[in-house]
């Protein structure tokens, strides 16, 4: 164990409040989160690259989501005044860089990738159906993130020092995120896209952070050069829907560039695997809310349905998650019901 007696934070943020400082939400944006059985269910309405309303719904196993949340951040009991105890074998996804403690962005990318896999599936479905390519995919994902409510994240979160970086697994639970949190979320989604997974970097600028994507900048686009590569700025925050290569502020210089690396599957922590695996498996009794039970049955068209239900006054009421599989066993539809009403 070592003790650092002085250290510098890259970002200085204000304390947590009921709603965070600078909270902003567009009037057409709708958010919903529910805990049903052993799953978190999320719903998010936003406008896509064509300015049309989209609504995405997905779920994450609670144990996987909460486990990854607990992995990031230095416990506050390790911090006393201007001293912090550094445990070298348990850096809690921070790295010491020239006397500065900063988040281990590549480590966090790999920790939270599986959490974002359902979002990648929705992203892939949209970009495929709309024949989006290259920059068009980036523009769509920027719209998705720019519409998500903004709020400053405090230095401490859930009893841990996080340096103002909200865990990806907490973004849709809290209902808002800031610049670096959205940028890391964007990176986790793009890390599954073969077009971009080896071209990502986190970029630190004064009081801010954003994502950089390696490419050939167009005239007047903002980028930073690092080790022979040009990373074009992707600004995932702001009321204005800022295009790829543009920024909300006139950044004159970059502080640091942190290229992001994807670990080989053999190096990826085993506890991160169940999310992807769970996408392809069916429901179990533990996925149903309290007092509900699971029904499984075949439909006349060859599809199969699994549905959590309640028995009330002699009637069966849909209550909890529902999955319909096509004749090939692939998931055709996922939805959630609350006392008979689809949400």
Polypeptide structure, described:
The protein has 343 residues and is an alpha+beta fold. The chain has six helices and 21 strands. The strands form six sheets. It has a five-stranded antiparallel sheet. The protein has a five-stranded antiparallel sheet with strand order 17-18-19-20-21, with no helix packed on it. A three-stranded antiparallel sheet has the order 1-7-6, with no helix packed on it.
Throw out a few tags for this protein:
343 residues; alpha+beta; 2 domains; 5-stranded antiparallel beta sheet; 21 strands; 32% strand; disordered N terminus
Task: Characterize this entry briefly.
This protein has six helices and 21 strands. By secondary structure, it is of the alpha+beta class.
Topology summary:
Layout: E1 2-4, E2 30-36, E3 39-47, E4 53-61, H1 62-71, E5 74-75, E6 79-80, E7 83-86, E8 94-97, E9 100-103, H2 105-129, H3 135-146, E10 156-157, E11 160-161, H4 168-174, H5 179-190, E12 200-205, E13 208-214, E14 223-226, E15 229-234, E16 256-259, H6 274-279, E17 293-298, E18 304-312, E19 315-325, E20 331-338, E21 341-342
Antiparallel strand pairs: 1-7, 2-3, 3-4, 5-11, 6-7, 8-9, 10-11, 12-13, 12-16, 13-15, 14-15, 17-18, 18-19, 19-20, 20-21
Helix pairs in contact: 2-5
